[in-house]
Amino acid sequence: MDWLQDNAWAAWLGAMILLGVAETLSLELVLIMLAAGAGVGMVAALLGAPLWAQAIAAAVTALAALLLVRPSVLSRLRSGPELTLGHDKLVGAQAVALTRISGHESGLIRLGGEEWTARAYDETTVIEAGQRVDVLQIHGATALVHPIPELD
User: Fold this and answer.
1) Residue 142 phi, psi dihedral angles, 5° rounding
2) Which pLDDT belongs to residue 112?
3) Is residue 28 within 8 Å of 51, Cβ to Cβ?
4) In the list 29, 61, 84, 122, which could disulfide-bond 40, CB 3.0-4.6 Å?
């Protein structure tokens, strides 16, 4: 029993390494929190704490890490910027009308360096060539646009 008390730090170190390696296979951040608890148990052993105190320190640390640290780390890892692809990335962009556009008369706009067919979002609106517009929706290959008001 004296040997275990004198070399408990090595057992905690081994547990910490084993849990850390196992975490690389699971990637759920559970085993790494247990490894952190084992690290605290190792420090307690190096400071000369009795075996029961080492175990309590390791358990409290692992539990606190699982309940307090893991949820916020997981939410940061799993959340990221929204990736918009295709036509969705053009919604909200600004363009320039190349021809006259209305709700009943399709025209052309320059959007992102390309020419697009466009219709006015509101059927009563008429957009003249050269006017800046916002892209509100994309339907197939036609952009539904609304003029940007100009300040005089």
Assistant:
1) -115, 130
2) 82
3) no
4) 61
CA dist 97 → 54, 109, 118, 142 (Å): 73, 4, 8, 13
| Residue 1: predicted pLDDT | 59
Q: What is the DSSP track for 91-134? A: TT-EEEESS-EESSS-EEEEETTEEEEEEESSTT-EE-TT-EEE
DSSP code of 20? H
End-to-end CA distance of the chain: 89
Q: What domains can be seen in the chain, in order of their start residue?
A: 2-78 (no CATH), 86-147 (2.40.50.140)
pLDDT at 125: 87
Q: Looking up tokens 């690389």, which residue turns up?
A: 24
pLDDT digits (tens, 9 = 90+) for 64-83: 999 999 999 998 888 877 76
Q: Is the pLDDT of residue 149 over 70?
A: yes
